[in-house]
Amino acid sequence: MTPPCRQPARRRTAVLRREAVLATVPVAVAALLGATGPAAGTAGAAGAGDPYFPLSGNGGYHVRHYDLTLRYHSDARELDGKAVLAARATQNLSRFDLDLTGLEVTGVTVDGLPAALRRHGQELVVTPRHTLRAGRDFRVTVAYHGTPKPVTDPDGSADGWIPTDDGAFVAGEPQGAMTWFPANSHPRDKSSYDITITVPQGRTAVANGVLLGQRTAHGNTTFHWRETQPMAAYLATATVGTFKVEQYTTHDGIHVYNAVDPREASRAAPVLKKLPSVLEWESTLFGPYPFRSAGAIVDHAPDVGYALETQTRPLYDSAPDTDTLVHETAHQWFGDSVSLTAWKDIWLNEGFATYAEWLYDEQHGGDSAQESFDALYAHPASDHLWDFPPGDPGGGENIFDTPVYARGAMTLHELRKAVGDRDFFRILRAWATEHRGGHGTTDQFVRLAEQISGKRLDGLFHTWLFTQGKPKNT
Ligand code: TRP
Ligand code: ZN
After folding, report:
1. Is 400 touching ligand 1 by the criterion CB < 6 Å?
2. CATH number of the domain encompassing residue 348
3. What are φ and ψ of residue 146, in 5° steps?
């Protein structure tokens, strides 16, 4: 099941190109300009305040719902889109930004009235006719089209709308949502989604949540998907390809929709068969599955090099192995339901999903978690594994690197040894339950662990999450 000396688990399968493309643009401080009176309002910030990705997300409003209507001409690789955002002002707002890169915008309205529009890098700056008062609901429509292209992340990998030979692999972590729809693209802001997408007949478009309808007319098929649970923009997908589709309902009433590229089907089948039992096993450990639908999108996208825990329906660039299925499914609790407030806390996603793999192996005839830990701990102090501490990766170029995954999981194993199994699993369940559908920070996790165990754990977390270099054996 697991090789005796496992590679630090991470979901990358391709070699990283290590170009240091650091984001250097500061968060806009234009917010105070132009405020001339109480009703005038101020501009929403150009970013959500995340130092790793300063322009991701925006200030001044919350998106309650995205209604995306898309048409993908997969042969020409062109996308037509209309986005309707139901938003709420969180300050008196004279103007606000959306994140969108590439693509041509042909019109923006706010509450039905044409709004002024400016493009500035990834910022789509929208100035409505009138100031939007704090607390007020408003509706933004954006009409756009063009040839979507992925963005290059600080670590050199591509994310966003990634064309494939039969459609597109659509994966937005950490910043690619803006390549295919105008978004408040930071996990701090979570929203429900309707995604309606039309593709040439014979192709399938798969998004998050439940398939409400599918109809074919004039050589095109339209798929209407709905995710009612709060979702971060990076977890949205609208993956297009030639897929074999399988649908069923589990004993627990979860709707499963699997879409598999025929080229991956024979290798994917034995792994996908385990999905219901993996969901059930994870539910016993982490608490009830947080969503009503589930499944997998198994694409054939050999250049991508990673899988993504797209909400309800993880996206794989090729047939996954069991550990990868377990990992992406665990993210539904850790990352998707309980979201980050800052990318710096990424170990709360990747360390937890990796530890889920260790637990799965331990309970299914593979290595014990202790053996997984020991195999990693054996790596010498000079090893890349110890290059930076997982609680403070240092920048966006490191968030998907080995220390986050492997040493993040080691941190949880240390916690388990310190508090014992009973309290450890209580902590995991309480974390998933108390923050379900919302957010969690590293500080909150540490406090929860201390509260449940009644132990002081700041030393343990300080050592494993925040201290440079290989920790001493304890
Ligand atoms: N979160 C993904 C996983 O671990 C991995 C991932 C998403 C990723 N986007 C990425 C890895 C970009 C490298 C680059 O399941
Ligand atoms: Zn992961």
Report:
1. yes
2. 1.10.390.10
3. 145, -170
Q: How many domains does the chain have?
A: 2
pLDDT tens per residue, range 274-299 = 999 999 999 999 999 999 999 999 99
Based on the fold, state whether residues 233 and 361 are members of the same structural domain.
Answer: no
Q: How far apart are the first and last CA of the chain?
A: 28
Query: Tokens at residue 415, please?
Result: 């916690």
- Quote the distance between the C-alpha of residue 262 and its chain's center: 26
CA distances from 226 to 188, 196, 279 (A): 21, 8, 21
| Domain range enclosing 368 | 343-466
- Residue at token pair 């309606």: 196
CA distance 161 to 209: 19
Residues of the chain with pLDDT under 50: 1-10, 12-38
Q: Whose CA is nearest to atom 10 of ligand 1?
A: 173
Atom of ligand 1 nearest to the CA of 155: 14
Going from the C-alpha of 7 to that of each of 2, 204, 402, 406, 416, the distances in angstroms are 10, 35, 9, 9, 22
**Residue 424 CA to ligand 1 centre (angstroms):** 26
